[in-house]
Amino acid sequence: MSSIIQLLPDHVANQIAAGEVVQRPASVVKELLENAIDAGASDIKLICKEAGKTLVQVIDNGKGMSVTDARLCFERHATSKIRKAEDLFDLHTKGFRGEALASIAAIAHVELKTRQDQEELGTHIIIEGSKFMAQEPSVLPKGTSFSVKNLFFNIPARRNFLKSDVVELRHIIDEFQRVALAHSNIHFTLYHNGSELFNLPQSNLRQRIVNIFSGKTNEKLVPIQESTEILSIQGFVGKPEFAKKNRGEQFFFVNDRFIKSSYLHHAVMSAYEGLLRDGLQPSYFLYLTVPTHTIDINIHPTKTEIKFDDEHALYAILRSATKHSLGQFNVAPILDFERDFNLDTPYSYQNKEAETPTIQIDSNFNPFQEEKKTATGSSFGFKPKKEAQPQWESLYVGLKENFEPEEMHFESEAVTSSLFSDHEVEKAPTSTYQIHKKYIVSPIKSGMLIIDQQRAHQRILYEQFLTNITVHQASSQQLLFPLTLYFSGNEMAILKELKPSLESTGFIFEALNLDSVVISGVPVAITESEVPIVLEQLISDLQDEIPDSSFSQMDSMAKSMARSLAVKTGTYLTEKEQENMVNSLFACKENSVSPFNKPTFITLSVEDLDKKFSI
Ligand code: ADP
Ligand code: MG
After folding, report:
1. CB distance 73 to ligand 1 below 6 Å
2. pLDDT by residue (tens digit) across 194-220?
3. 48 inside domain
4. Ligand 1, closest atom to CA 100?
5. CATH code at position 316
6. pTM to 2 decimals?
């Protein structure tokens, strides 16, 4: 029989290897950033276009490459970082496998420009799908620039598999932050589609964390420091009262490399025992340093999982160090009993100049005009100052025009159609009652309807926002003075992605800066004071869940805004408001459940009542 085994050509082998190293644009980001760090750079710029799908470029001021190395670096297993197997147990660099560039060059259009400090001319190389297209000497700045364009251009299946730009950008930001957190002594910048998302100057660790996660983070952190023979720990853990629902701010670094470890996570969590409310997650930024020969990094191609020689000892040390820090923090306020924390100047105000208070004058004020009732306005979240329109009505701006009783159909809900036979719903219920500031009760022909006011309102607002976002027709109200809100770079990146959708709900942005937004108009359903709450909630909801399509992003946004703005249980509703709530609910496309899939109303039939009384 003839033999059938053949050696794969290099470019095919590289494409296969690429599958392991490069899953998405963020993988390229990670490899290029790590190479720049290994090259000793003190300034690293990351430039992406369309979430890295069309361009990922990393420019560093590191040591550069010679002509020969510039060519060799694209070969598989070509590395300057290890020479023999033993070196694997004494690693001081991020890379060592020598396969990243070969893999990337196999599945993208790559352009390399590099110059060593002592050389006059640098090297410019173009390589596409593992094929060298051009190489020439060139006048270049010191350091290296890699541009990776059109990722997966020759593997359409992989390219189609990529998620939306929002999702891919989120992954890129995650990688960028991990690398930036591990190297606060390096200046990092990230640009996306021409705008600067992060600019992180060289700083100490605490400042780096604050620069990434906003100024508010500073007061939330407790330092941690421990040094033993097998492990030293540095960094910060979050105060328990600032714990959050998501695990977004939990980082372990081992010898300056970001790693994931559920075992070490457990150690930290056990130190928080009894200090956290159920389901909440503390933040932590923990930097462990261990002797290089006690770890094995080589067990995972992306190197985010590593093996420790003595995990149990690390667990115990980490747990007790965390406990110790938290303990110190818990004791501190007791020693400081003389101090009234309410009098402390917030950190960010310390260097702020005093502002002259502004006076608002209502030029339309007429003392003889009868005053409108605004009793429930504030707790309700609708602008009482919009006198022309009774406040309740803002509840269904945008819905009202569509609300034509004779057009209502309930085919989606079999229950509903049988409930309201005889066109009961077509005329609004004439009398409603609110019980326990929670339910609206309304008699109907077949019995009675009990509506959960909060869930019903969530449904109404959700459909309203979703219509606005998808149809782009919301009206906004101009603010007298533009509102400036501060956010972290991370949060700003999400806001920038959401900008078009937010604009369709009625937001008007005057500027989106590096760490702040200036808002000059808001949706009619939102009061100015609610804007920060709505946006913060929105960002945190979207951080939790990574939407996989632009529709699910809009959907999450409408849900989040509906949740923030719906009247809460415990809010008193006037009779008119109750009645409007009922009408608006039944004008909704899907009225039986809230956007979070909880029932909005139940019915009790006369027979149900009869049964109860027959005992
Ligand atoms: P590894 O990082 O595992 O060695 P790579 O494929 O990522 O493998 O890189 C191959 C080699 O190219 C590196 O060992 C290094 O010598 C060189 N190199 C890559 N990027 C840079 C850079 N930004 N500056 C200088 N040299 C670089
Ligand atoms: Mg590398």
Report:
1. yes
2. 999 999 999 999 999 999 987 778 888
3. yes
4. 6
5. 3.30.230.10
6. 0.65
